[in-house]
Amino acid sequence: MDALVTSKIPGVRKLFSGKVRDVYSADKEHLIIISTDRISAFDHVFPNGIPGKGVILNGISNRWFSSIKFIKNHIVETDYRNFPAPFCNHPEQVADRAVLVRKAQRIDFECVARGYLIGSGWKDYLDTGEVCGIRLPAGLSLSQELPAPLFTPATKAKSGHDVNISIEVMRKKLGTDVADRLGELTLQIYEYAREKLKKSGILLADTKFEFGYIGNEIVLIDEILTPDSSRFWDAGEYAVGSSPVSFDKQFLRDYLETTPWDKNSPPPPLPEEIIEKTRAKYEEIRQRIFTAQ
């Protein structure tokens, strides 16, 4: 199987290429979003992708979109045979890896839910005793479950890392009612997914969502609860005080730390062994998520 590193639909202009997704206009009200097999780490996209990764991500995201009923989302169609032309004529680029969605006015904040103390939250806690301005009890350990899940927004960066902010910054930008509603929705989705995943022995450490407006209504957009947007841990190997085994790109990051690549120059091609092992991680979490649904 070859990796789809970039898409090109004849006769249609690509609107945007992100680290993983290519976005096209379908008509005045709809977009086609294609999940490619690109993979990134340390803010760089690697020249060779992970074959089938986009199909896995798209399938996971669509499964969650279809199961979450308490907020609307932007999905219109997931079967490429029902896409408008010319997209429906290119199954090699869209089958099982693309969606037809309603255009939405994106709200330019990442909405992050944290259930455990890890990643940038752990670094903030060590420095300040807080995470995004929220004071936490003293003496917490790496990867420890938090007393209650936290909503910790971040600003969306066009390149590089998103920047953690306090809810007060978000309230000043969006208004208190909207910011607080986004916080409520973020934690509601997180808690719903966390309980589902426990059935498959998976801990949802943290995750991030994007929201937008369609008309005056807030809807869920982009991707949800995939290994690219979430930190999934194996409950059977979880231990407080250590960085748990995860089903995301951490395996790739760990490998890259052993190489001479400086994380600033263009990244080197990934070895075949690393590609295969990374794909296996994605496939395993897909199977376990589907079991939990």
Features:
single chain; 293 residues; alpha+beta; Phosphorylase Kinase, domain 1; D-amino Acid Aminotransferase, Chain A, domain 1; 2 domains; 8-stranded antiparallel sheet; 5-stranded antiparallel sheet; 7 helices; 17 strands; 26% strand; globular
Could you explain the architecture of this structure?
By secondary structure, the protein is an alpha+beta fold. It has two domains: 14-103, Phosphorylase Kinase, domain 1; 107-258, ATP-grasp fold, B domain (D-amino Acid Aminotransferase, Chain A, domain 1), CATH 3.30.470.20. It is built from seven helices and 17 strands. It has helices at 53-67, 91-94, 119-128, 167-174, 176-198, 250-256, 272-292, and strands at 14-17, 21-25, 30-35, 40-41, 44-45, 75-77, 98-102, 105-106, 109-116, 130-131, 134-135, 145-151, 154-155, 163-164, 202-214, 217-221, 230-234. The strands form four sheets. Strands 8, 9, 12, 13, 14, 15, 16 and 17 form an eight-stranded antiparallel beta sheet that branches. It has a five-stranded antiparallel beta sheet with strand order 1-2-3-7-6. A hairpin with a 3-residue loop joins β1 (14-17) and β2 (21-25). α4 packs across α5 (176-198). The longest helix has 23 residues, at 176-198. The chain is globular, with a radius of gyration of 19 Å. The two termini are 28 Å apart. The mean pLDDT is 95.
